[in-house]
Write a structure and sequence with these properties.
single chain; alpha+beta; Lipocalin; two-stranded parallel ribbon; 14 strands; 30% helix; lyase activity; lyase
């Protein structure tokens, strides 16, 4: 009996390491599979293609809100005014293009805008080497749209009225994604010859725009006469519009207006693949 018990004990002793070793191997295989699966999912997420409409939505979102040139005006008051730039969604075209209402005013008199425009934001045509087309249009009745973004929604013209009030085309800026590592997300300009403009003795004007991180916008507009002489606009560089510290226009950032996640911005910074 003692001998039988000893043999039984030895048999159990021999089987345990085998069972333990099998479980360890299986567990290691499962962990390795999970690591490989997680890595594949992460790689897929990081390399996910950014569509042309993603670019257009991010530019529209970056423009929206209250932005001011206060810091720049304090730094260089001889060349830059303290201006408030206010932009918000106004309508959407049938093809998905975003229509934004845009106005500028001196910050001390925000209720009296000196410039009012509609911006239309959409992807660049495939044949052009750019990502986003930003076009500005005149407004048929600017008085009707004064302080549009500051008003409650039920006191604004309806989207169908906005579309009907889009007047003549003024300029188009062709934006491209900035190279990786640069401070900007997008930058671009009008064509070298610019667009017709007769203000203050000019014959044409040019515009350069940079969309920076943290929703900062730089705009450099200049007018030239027939001989190429600079007649209006800052000479030293663009206006730097930074988000106002405390905007009263909180609703313009709601997901209802722009259903876009912060991850899209990260994808656009890191992705170099475009889809339709």
């Amino acid at each position: 009996m003692v001998t039988g018990g000893s043999e039984s004990s030895n048999s159990n002793s021999d089987s345990n390491p085998t069972s333990s070793g099998g479980w360890s191997a299986a567990r290691g295989l499962v962990m390795k599979s999970l690591v490989l699966l997680g890595g594949a999912l992460l790689l897929k997420r990081l390399t996910k293609s950014t569509t042309r409409w993603d670019h257009a939505r991010l530019v529209a979102r970056s423009f929206s809100g209250e932005k001011i040139s206060t810091e720049q005006a304090s730094r260089d008051p001889d060349n830059y005014f303290n201006i408030r730039m206010l932009t918000c969604p106004a309508a959407e075209m049938v093809d998905g293009s975003k229509v934004l209402y845009f106005e500028q005013a001196f910050r001390r008199t925000p209720q009296k805008p000196f410039r009012q425009r509609f911006y239309m934001v959409k992807p660049c045509p495939k044949e052009l080497k750019c990502d986003v087309e930003l076009s500005s249009y005149a407004i048929r009745d600017v008085e009707e749209y004064k302080n549009f973004c500051d008003r409650p929604r039920d006191q604004r013209p309806l989207p169908e009225e906005v579309i009907g009030d889009i007047a003549e085309h003024l300029t188009t800026i062709y934006l491209k994604r900035c190279d990786r590592g640069k401070r900007c997300l997008y930058e671009g300009s009008t064509p070298p010859e610019g667009f017709p403009n007769s203000w203050s003795g000019a014959s044409h004007c040019t515009s350069e725009v940079s969309v920076l991180k943290n929703n900062e916008i730089h705009i450099w507009e200049r007018g030239y006469d027939d001989d190429g002489n600079h007649v209006w606009g800052p000479r030293e560089g663009p206006y730097e519009f930074k988000p106002a510290p405390a905007s009263s226009n909180n609703d313009m950032f709601s997901p209802f207006n722009f259903p876009i996640q912060q991850s899209i911005e990260k994808r656009i910074e890191g992705s170099f693949v475009l889809q339709d």
